[in-house]
Amino acid sequence: QSESSDKSSAESDSETEVEQVSVYHKLLATLKTSTECESEEEEDESESEEAGESETEMDSEGSQEMGEADGGEEDKSDASDQEEGIAATDTGEQTLGQEQADGADTSCDPSHGVIEEFTDVKHESEFSLETNFMEEESGDCNADKRDSNSSQAFSEDPFKQHMDKELEEKEVEKMSTLPKTSSQSKWPRLGQLTFSSTLEQHKTLKVDKEVDVKQLYLHKPLESTWPKVNKQFLSSVNKPSDSSFTPLQRELFCIMNTYRDLFYPERNALTNGEEIRHAYCLHALNHVLKANAQVLSNNTKRRDQKPGTNNDDYRDQGLTRPKVLMIVPFRECALRIVHIFISLLEVNDKRKIDVSNKKRFKGEFGSDPEEKPPNLKRPEDYEAVFAGNIDDHFRIGVAILQKSMRLYAPFYSSDIIIASPLGMRTIIGAEGEKKRDFDFLSSIEILIIDQADIYLMQNWEHVLHLMKHINLLPLDSHGVDFSRVRMLNLNNWSKYYRQTLLFSALQDPQINSVFNKHCFNYVGQVAVRNVPLSGSISHVVVQLPHVFRRLEAENLTSVIDTRFQFFINKVLPEYRDAIMSHTLIYVPSYFDYVRLRNYFKKEELNFTHICEYTKKAAVCRARRFFLKGEKQFLLFTERFHFYKRYTIKGIRNLIFYELPTYSHFYSEICNMMKATDNGVDATWTCTVLYSKYDAQKLAAVVGIDRTAQMLQSKKNVHLFVTGEN
């Protein structure tokens, strides 16, 4: 199959076919494969070297490339496939779901293609919550009973407080009908917080200046293992009494431990990503250990009680076993999470925990460091995001008892599920399919969505699809003992108890929407809402006039058409003259890109284009034609830049059709102009299209003060940036 007939899990969503690895996956695969195009790409300093690079690519691609009418364009069938995909919203995806919803994992093994999903059935009884008892787990049943029942601490435990609260009908009705009330607060490290809730506000949450790990109600052995595991993030600045958390972790965990929903939009893979991952892993593991200990303790009590005793006191579980769902973008993320879990469960080197299927897990989720080409130069943030195994199609169940962990547990025997959005999408399936399953999502108590911004670059539809299928009543009983099921689950109120932790590198309307519309936690929500003061425009190092052109749209739905008309009627005519050659048009949305490409073809403009579907040889040719000036325009998608981060040489005029999703892409693209040796500074231009609905993206680029002025003024704004503004 040629790449042109492959499909992607990108914005066009619907083009996936069962037996094919998507272009998007191939795009990921190329990040780890040394190709002529990539390995020479950053080293090339001259035109001739670029030409040579492209020739080599054409040879390596084979003769199928040679039949293209326009060397700078991707294959014709590729283009038509994508256009069809826009209309065909979910067909291919449904096919994929039908084939795989029965649990056949479509995780792509580079050497074996699509492999069948493995689940560990061998250790079922060993990890069963129904057949294990507290003394077998801890070795000291009485100690646990003392800890859990007779101490006042147990009743103050946030886990118990949250899960044992019995909501009333009128409170649930309130939450489903009344708007939320909100209040603001400022914390030392997190900054501006917005607390919102429908029910009456509890006492205002204040950050603890110092956290004693013993007062956090951490389950054994986390109290002793956490300080050791987290030591790598701590500096000598931390006081001895506060030695187990960084300032950021302390404030985040303070919120997590109250079981409020949390949205933190300042996650950075380079700086704070790993300390955040450690904090939410601690919280998730703490929750699971407490929940399982409660079940095992009650098993023991039930076994020892006299016949005929009322069993209604032991409601301690959901309709299905999985309690925590962790959504992460790549296999490498799942690998790191499991390693953190293992570290947190191992008290010392002598007391190693038993991890079943560890070798298999390492083989499927690990990566070979030698796979990475040594001569690719990419920004540090790119290296941090795309480290390790970057396959995005996976799901794995994890069962945990205090001294052992079972990887590849069947979902209905798992405590924690770690998956990518695509991994979830293919098992949830679509309406009308025979083989689909989402009952295992019915009793999720903690949902963690990490690196949410990356899903905007993958396929946001998968995230929305997941949110629609979480905490629904299961279609089958799955052998549950209804006398042990909490009333909140039987009442179908699970969603009001679910805590959602959402971490992202940026504020985005689509991410905000998930937090605002799909989070119903009765305790309320906390969102970090800091505004950018300077903006990424201050990192532009080339002297360049920036013209921000405002378009007026009546409403949010009309913005897309208004932008297109504004561009072809008012902006493009100014660039049609041959003197305005070397014009790069940066397009964040693939749909806008297709629309522009079709218009450019119809108008017979001299252009070439690069998107996430473009073949390697076509990319090299397009870059060469653009550099030499043989093509006046280059249409360039944001997703291509996200996954490749090539330096495009020869840019003299830059048009941002829409503001970039990632604000630092603005300065990155502008700074590409300095890569052209023969460029004349005075002739460089940069034009940006924006509307009032782009306030968040605009603030991230120009800063909050300028944004306020620009949104008040109806005129175009001219900024001249010297790199020090």
TrEMBL record:
GO terms (BP aspect): maturation of SSU-rRNA from tricistronic rRNA transcript (SSU-rRNA, 5.8S rRNA, LSU-rRNA)
Where does the record say this protein resides?
Nucleus, Nucleolus
What domain of life is recorded for the organism? Eukaryota
Q: Where is the composition biased (Acidic residues)?
A: 37-84
Q: Which residues form the UTP25 NTP hydrolase-like domain?
A: 259-526
Which residues lie within the region annotated Disordered? 1-161, 297-316
Q: What does this protein do?
A: Component of the ribosomal small subunit processome for the biogenesis of ribosomes, functions in pre-ribosomal RNA (pre-rRNA) processing. Essential for embryonic development in part through the regulation of p53 pathway. Controls the expansion growth of digestive organs and liver. Also involved in the sympathetic neuronal development. Mediates, with CAPN3, the proteasome-independent degradation of p53/TP53.
Q: What is this protein called?
A: U3 small nucleolar RNA-associated protein 25 homolog
What is the native source organism of this protein?
Answer: Balaeniceps rex (Shoebill)
The gene for this chain is Diexf
